[in-house]
Amino acid sequence: MSAVHCWIFSVTCRSLLRQVTLAAAAAEIREERLLAWTQKTINSSPDVDEAVMSLPPAAEMASLIQTYHYWGAEFISYFQRAFPGRGLFFMQVSGVGDPGLAFTFYFPLVVALNAGLGVRMMWTLLFCEWSNMILKWTLAGDRPFWWIHETPIYAHGLPPPMHQYPITCETGPGNPSGHAKLNAAMFFVLVSAFINLVQKSSRLSDEQKVWARRGLWAAYAGWMVLVMLSRLYIAAHFPHQCLAGVAIGIGMAVMVARMPYLQTMTRRQYLALSATIIGSVLGVYFGLQAAGWDVLWSMEKAIRWCIRREYIHIDTMPFYSFSRFSGVALGLGLALSSPWYKKANRDRFNKKMTASLVVLSLLVSQFGVYVHKSLPRSMTLLYFAEFTLNASVTYALVAALPHVVRVLSRVPAGDKYKRKQ
Predict the structure, then answer these.
(1) Collapsing DSSP states into helix, strand and coil, what is residue 176?
(2) 55 vs 28, 29, 48, 152, 160, CA distance in Å?
(3) Rounded to whole angstroms, how far apart are CA atoms 322 and 130?
(4) Which helix or strand (DSSP H or E) is residue 190 part of?
(5) Which of 230, 71, 74 is nearest to 165 (CA)?
(6) Catalytic residue among 5, 69, 237, 403
(7) Phi, psi of 47 (to 5 degrees)
(8) Is the CB of residue 368 less than 8 Å from the CB of residue 393?
């Protein structure tokens, strides 16, 4: 990344930050005016659609979101009543698609089997997490489990019955859905890779390739429907938030697929990219604070309306997610620019070496999970410790472990590394 590119990027980030700050201030003023108008209008009209239609043009967008929330809450309540006792199943679906699992299981497994695919998948996940944090702060979307208790729509009546589950009470804002976004992005990358393998196969006929491609995309669509339904059933998201997450996730996957240079940059460029990711998040955070927004407003609502304190987990807190993806970004950049990664010569790994690398990668990843769970939640430098842990584990998975397996197996260093000597 040249000095000119860095300067252009920094100017762009500052410009975006100023726009977000001004938009935040304007939105706060509009929200105060809208709340007074909406309260008056809805109280005088028993029908939500009639109330929304009578709002002034300046409040149409916010009232439209309220309408989405209203019908979304009604659907969630009906969904839970129509399928009672399915909480465990949908929690398991959310668990399989948990963003934390993408970092601690899917990525270690995929990068051990195919380094290029694993790295592309991780960059996609990182951009998803980064954009997710900024969008959640700027869009400030409610979650169903607290919205039904605070909206003026139900001020003169009972809100729809809505059950909570052990993974309902996430503390960050709800829009867009991080689960839907990461699953859409991650499995889009994996399905696309499988389809490329199918297209290159000489054992399948053209008709078989067409049906295989359709089957893979159908499986992808089916899984995404399950993920979205699971987020709705446990009352963690509204329908429009899940759809937004899927759309953005697919967009991120397509974007990263068109950025192959993310795997071949220099160490200085990787450090600049990591600093940009960290700086942009902190810039938006302090910019919104300077504009008068309480950026962590959702934590208070989650704690207030969650029926059980043990349902609130640190993994769902905004700055834990920040410490995770920023640490991974740094570790990934350092690993990709290290001599160990260039020496690995993964093309010459046989099945035994690949299997050994898979086992070692999963063991190191799970050790990282164990360390994460062992960290005291009251420690002052908790987020810095999480940042360091994620950077270290990522470096080990991408660079150190393949190097160890190569050396122990007595495989020569990669040609890529030798050419640079």
Answers:
(1) coil
(2) 18, 16, 11, 15, 24
(3) 8
(4) helix 178-200
(5) 230
(6) 237
(7) -105, 130
(8) yes
- Residue 179 CA: distances (Å) to CA of 132, 228, 281, 364: 10, 8, 20, 24
Q: Is the dihedral of CA 277, 280, 283, 289 positive or negative?
A: negative
Torsion of CA 369, 373, 374, 376, to 10 degrees: 140
Local structure of 56: helix, strand or coil: coil
Q: Where are the beta strands (DSSP E) in 319-404?
A: none
Biggest CA pair distance of the chain: 80
d(CA 58, CA 14) in angstroms, rounded, equals 28
179 flagged as catalytic = yes
Q: Are 358 and 386 in contact (CB under 8 A)?
A: no
Burial class (CB in 10 A: 0-12, 13-18, 19+), 321: buried
Q: Which of 5, 149, 179, 313 is catalytic?
A: 179
Q: How far is CA 304 from CA 34, 68, 78, 171, 359, in A?
A: 24, 23, 24, 11, 43
Provide the 10 A C-beta neighbour count for residue 209: 15
Contact yes or no for 178/246 (Cβ under 8 A):
no
Using CA atoms, how far apart are residues 121 and 54, in angstroms rounded to an integer? 47
Active site residue 237: yes
CB neighbours of 419 closer than 8 A, spacing ≥ 6? none
Residues in the chain: 421
Cβ of 224: how many Cβ atoms within 10 Å?
A: 21
Residue 380, token pair as written in the block: 């002052």
The whole-angstrom separation of Cα 224 and Cα 230 is 10
Q: What is the pLDDT along the chain (421 residues), one digit of tens a residue?
A: 444 344 434 434 444 344 334 333 433 433 443 344 344 444 444 444 454 445 444 355 567 788 888 899 999 999 999 999 999 999 999 999 998 899 999 999 999 999 999 999 999 999 999 999 999 988 888 999 999 998 888 877 888 899 999 999 888 898 899 999 999 999 999 999 999 999 888 888 888 999 999 999 999 999 999 999 999 999 999 999 999 999 999 999 999 999 999 988 999 999 999 999 999 999 998 998 898 888 888 888 988 999 888 888 766 676 788 889 999 999 999 999 999 998 887 888 889 999 999 999 999 999 999 998 888 876 667 888 899 999 999 999 999 999 999 998 888 877 554 443 3
Tokens of 337: 């620019």
CA distance 421 to 417: 7
